[in-house]
Amino acid sequence: MALDRPAAPNDLNAFWMPFTANRQFKKAPRMIVAAEGMHYTTSDGRQILDGTAGLWCCNAGHKRPRIVEAIQTQAAELDYAPAFQMGHPRAFELANRLVDLAPDTMAHAFFVNSGSEAVETALKIAIAYHRARGDGARTRLIGRERGYHGVNFGGISVGGIVNNRKMFGTLLAGVDHLPHTHIPENRWTRGQPEHGAHLADELERIVALHGPETIAACIVEPLAGSTGVLIPPKGYLQRLREICTKHGILLIFDEVITGFGRLGSPFAAQHFDVTPDMITCAKGLTNGVIPMGAVLTSAAIHDAFMTGPEHLIELFHGYTYSANPIACATAIASLDTYREEGLFERCAELAPYWEEGLHSLRDCPHVIDIRNMGLIGAIELEPIPGEPTKRAFAAFLEAYDKGLLIRTTGDIIALSPPLIIEKAQIDELFGTLRGVLHAIA
Ligand code: PMP
């Protein structure tokens, strides 16, 4: 495009949209122009109740004054500074805040720009950690079927989603996958399912196959969100922790969705009382407002790198925007908002009410399972034979028309509203959804 010829601002063609059926979308676009509190505003002036906190990230809702102000103030004061060989106060403040919020053994924060980058960073730290300790044969990684760990090469390699992997070649070598924990015995469970802790023992089989001395880390989402809300069976995460500890394997919790109050605790690690060696987080870290992620690590991991001469760089890794000042200020304002409004506690308090509302949809047409924890819910629909995803996508479109944003993955509807949701809005959400499920039947 010539510089003297202005682009047509309303042409939809140039933007290649992520994870979107582009050709279909551009025939009937859905355009969001504003957001506040629990609602989005569409280009045709309709209000849409945000049933998903954007993409599981706007935990305090939208356009929160404290966050807006923090961004403006920071941009006017220090807009950008490298984090390589220099620092700025907000980065250190945020690292301290995160370490305070996280389980006791988390002692350091490494800043990145997204959940995907947090995952790549954690996997690289895991391999480099073993090497730093003279255990360089530990390079294998273990993920899980139906795990979502972002879209970069490490993340899709340990991830277990066929569609996200199949176009992209050989991926990382030396990766195994645990079975997922979503088993039919657990249908209609409220909260943590009873069955399936034994599925963690599959880790022993993988360890026996390759030898523990070859395995660097095991990464799981404590509660898998993106593939349809798979809640860990009772005892499962404890068992994974035991096996990892026994064999010197680092356990990484990918808390990109579960971090920052979604289950009623700062992190799922605290909710389930299982402590990993590293936590990846993003999304709610900045209330979704500015891209940012972090890897939290134990002191033991960090300290393994701090042994060489002091003038040398310890870890050859980092991003231009690591600890970006505006992102740090946004994160601090988000954490302040969560704390001042008691949003994590609020989530825990609302969870039983949410659970009742969600499970009241059990009798709706084509519903074959419902599950929930904290302010997360999933409604699984019976797929139309030969046309997977079609039924749930029809629900998404119908809900959008009726003024409600839901998220679908396969034939599963996933719900994760901002933690500021009111009881009346929970009623509205499930009332609308009931209408949607009947309308598409
Ligand atoms: N890990 C998990 C568990 C996630 O849910 C996501 C995003 N849904 C990611 C990683 C990737 O995060 P991002 O899209 O910010 O790269």
UniProtKB/TrEMBL annotation:
One example of a Gene Ontology biological process annotation: biotin biosynthetic process
Keywords: Aminotransferase, Pyridoxal phosphate, Transferase
Molecular functions per Gene Ontology: adenosylmethionine-8-amino-7-oxononanoate transaminase activity; beta-alanine:pyruvate transaminase activity; pyridoxal phosphate binding
Enzyme class label: transferase
InterPro entries in the cross-refs: Aminotrans_3, Aminotrans_3_PPA_site, PyrdxlP-dep_Trfase, PyrdxlP-dep_Trfase_major, PyrdxlP-dep_Trfase_small
Family: Belongs to the class-III pyridoxal-phosphate-dependent aminotransferase family.
EC number(s) reported in the record: 2.6.1.18
Cofactor: pyridoxal 5'-phosphate
The UniProt record lists the keyword Membrane: no
Name this polypeptide is given: Aspartate aminotransferase family protein
Classification lineage: Bacteria, Pseudomonadati, Pseudomonadota, Alphaproteobacteria, Rhodobacterales
